[in-house]
Amino acid sequence: MTAQITVLGLGPGHVAHLSLAGWEVLKKRPYLFMRTKHHPLVEWLKKQGITGITFDDYYETSQSFEEVYERITQRILTEAENKSLVYAVPGHPLVAEKSVTLILHEAKAKGIKTEIIPAMSFLDVCCAALQLDPAEGLRVVDGLSIQDQIIDPPVGNIIMQVYNQLIASEVKLTLLEYYPPDYPVKILQSIGLPEQERIEEHPLYSVDRLTWFDHLTSLFLSPYPKGKREGCFPLDPLVNIIKTLRGERGCPWDKEQTQYSLIRYLLEETYEVIEAILEFDPPKISEELGDLLLQIVFQAQIAEEKHDFGMGDVVAGITRKIIQRHPHVFGPEKEEIKDSADVRALWEKIKAQEKGRGKAKSTAKHLPALLRAQYIQEEAAKNGFDWPNYQGALAKVNEELDEVNQAIAAGEKAKIIEELGDLLFAVVNTARLLDVEAEVALTGTINKFNKRLCYLEKQARQAGKELAGYPLAELDNWWEESKKAEVNGKGMDITLK
Fold first, then answer.
1. Do the domain assignments include residue 215?
2. Same domain, 92 and 137
3. Which residue range is the domain that position 407 belongs to?
């Protein structure tokens, strides 16, 4: 007979909550293991002559809960190689039972047969005691690892496994990031055990002052009232994913990356965000912003590994800077601000003070050429070196164009390069004075040209030839067709198949 692991739920604690299927299994006096003896049903089972091996000593001799669950898993799998056994856990086996998750996963990999005997979970009795309908929204959070999980204030949150005051203190500190200090919290103890059941309500700031936490204690926070909650979308899940990818059992490629090797991806994702914005495609903008955020978190994780800084420092730093640069919004004595011109003047004043405190002035060396040209021109304008309006800059464009023609006529390659550079610089200056981002304008033109080129390629392909096989006049006709389609608002199907 093939050995089998039967995972059995003991229910929330009262004997009435043990399933009939579970009782039938236990009555056969199986080779029994129990995760912990700290469960009300364990004493009752003893009185029925049913005992088993518990793992409470693992909790005392391990460095972390992860180590406890790993040791339990290995012991169960080793024992199951020789004979069938029952592994009993509090509540429902598939509700917040990490050791069960590990056992089922590794047993499958080893070809060991498993069976699950379900039971009522602590959630069932909690919902009954609180008169909650979980279909209206309920998040269950493990108090032992609350910093790695997401709290969702708009729905009810049950924080389980709040064993003692130390865990309660860590839970409180995390919850204070989402709720006000006086937010009401229900403390639930021994729910489902009529003679021991206890429910009390206390303000959040005081929950860790209570002294009666035990293995059957949970917290409940009702949905945060609408209109009082700020949006909370913490970066922790993404940060933890990157940590895992860079960790011992992570991805080889991710572990090899450095801050320098990721520069190209940082640039690529930035330009893909710009492209999505220029295409007016909200879903794509959202996706590309996520890709860019990934690169930011990746950079911060590598810096944290070198003990330089972490993602928390990045967020705290930019938050502090934005607050400092908006004294007219956040300052105790708000300055008089009439329009965006006043805001720009205030920013320059604040940035000048920052430079006076030792912050180095950027020379923008790593910006793309168009952006850097605009940056340098803006810096010159701050010092009074600028055209009074766009007309002077536009005249300069015509002047530089004449010099380009002269250089071409002279056939001097170096001079042509120089004069073309001057022409581009003058065009950027004109764009700046017309309040146009040269980089954005050129990117838009590139995208427009590419769409029209794709239209030509598709027309040629449908006619059975390569694009290079057509005379320029015919290509020009298709080009005009693509422009008319844009003007008429019909768009172009440019999918290349």
1. yes
2. no
3. 369-436
Give the pTM: 0.48
Domain boundary among 167, 191, 221: 221
* Counted domains in the chain: 5
* 122-138 per-position pLDDT tens digit: 999 999 999 999 988 89
What integer is the mean pLDDT of 228-250? 78
From 221, 249, 280, the end of a domain falls on: 221
**Dihedrals phi, psi of 386, to nearest 5 degrees:** -165, 160
Q: Label residues 56-86 b or e (16+ Cβ within 10 Å = b).
A: eebbeebeebeebbbbbbebbbebbeeebbb
Q: Residue 277 sits in a domain of what CATH number?
A: 1.10.287.1080
Q: Read off the pLDDT of residues 444-495 as tens digits, 9 standing for 90 and up.
A: 888 888 888 888 888 877 777 777 767 777 777 778 887 777 655 544 443 3
pLDDT for the residue 296: 96
How many other C-beta atoms are found inside a 10 Å radius of the C-beta of residue 172?
23
Residues 108 and 141 in one domain: no
